[in-house]
Amino acid sequence: MASSGRIILISSHVAAGAVGNRIMGFTLERLGMETVDIPTVLLPHHPGFGLGRPILASAADFAALLAGVATRFSERPPLAVATGYFGRAEHVAETARFIAGLKERFPGLVYLCDPVMGDSDRLYVPEPVAEAIRDHLLPLADIATPNVFEFGWLTGTKPEPDPTALVVDARRLGPAEVIVTSAPALMRGRMAAVLVKPNETILAEHPVVENPAKGAGDLFSALYLGRKMLGASSEEALAFAAAGTADLFVVTEQLGRDELAFAEGQDVMLRPNLGRIALRRIAEAKGPISLT
Predict the structure, then answer these.
(1) 36-92, pLDDT tens digit by residue?
(2) Which H, E and C letters describe 211-249, residue by residue?
(3) Which of 96, 130, 141, 282 is the most buried (most CB within 10 A)?
(4) Residues 178, 163: contact at Cβ < 8 Å?
């Protein structure tokens, strides 16, 4: 294992379900990594399953929580931070200050920003929250994992059917690694996670999922970040994250669930069938891809 350091997760917490910190924390801990879970909102379940009263801390209480957590890393610094869903713009601003402070204290810290704010051509967070994520968190991020709708909203573009059209806008977004999920693929009947780095672009293509269960983006981000922290290359982490997510979809569908069956499918999620994934380089990429 690369290190015994911790990964800090800042996202929603649901009492029942497979989204936010619940799925991310489980996934990273199954990979052998300790997590520090900071809830941005408490919910009975994913809002898509019906209205539930969200429990949101005040800006002052949330800032106090972050400040308390920041005192815990003298002996074992965090390896990484990942952020996801936010219910208040003030929480985003406080989180940006928290991450900036950690980056100053621990220069090697990796920050993954999953800009959880919309899907299916609509925002599902208040616009000030989306704007705060764009303006305060993305500039700090080393890795960003928007879905194709979020990518279009963040860049002010309408993603084209050709995935190569994402490359220029992804590089303008800021983070050194941008992974656009649920993106168009080069092969018919498939969709892709498109990894855009400064000098190369790689697609991980997988079969289309007609009715994806909630939490896929959170799972993908956790698998990718976890594999990277364990020493995998970006290409290897991309393949494992895409394959692990696709394999868990299969288990979930077999069980007839409407939420990711992460407990029953944890073994295939962590030891996925890489043959389900086709990796392709596009744009200026050079040479074949080799996975170990």
Answers:
(1) 999 999 887 776 666 678 889 999 999 999 999 999 888 889 999 999 999 999 999
(2) CCCECHHHHHHHHHHHHHHCCCCHHHHHHHHHHHHHHHH
(3) 141
(4) no
Given the structure tokens 């400040």, which residue do they identify?
Answer: 67
Whose CA is closest to 34, among 78, 75, 72?
A: 78
DSSP string covering 95-133: HHHHHHHHHHH-TT-EEEE----EETTEE-S-HHHHHHI
Q: What is the rounded CA–CA span in Å between residue 234 and residue 285?
A: 14
CA distance 62 to 152: 30
* Cα–Cα separations (whole angstroms), residue 122 to 117, 118, 153, 172: 9, 6, 9, 22
Residue-wise over 255-286: b if at least 16 C-beta within 10 A, else e?
A: eeeebbbbeebbebbbebebebbbbbebeeee
> What is the Cα–Cα distance from 222 to 22, expressed in whole angstroms?
11
3-state secondary structure of 262: coil
- Three-state DSSP class for residue 149: helix
What is the C-alpha separation between 76 and 74, in angstroms, rounded? 6
Which tokens belong to 159? 């993603």
Greater model confidence, 251 or 5: 251
What is the distance of C-alpha 88 from the center of its chain? 19
Taking the model in full, what pTM does it have?
0.91
Q: 105: closest CA among 142, 74, 136, 61?
A: 74
Residues in the chain: 292
Has residue 283 got a pLDDT over 80?
no
Q: 62: which 2 tokens?
A: 């949330």
CA distance 5 to 145: 22
Region 207-235: what's the mean pLDDT?
88
Number of neighbours of residue 77 by Cβ within 10 angstroms = 15
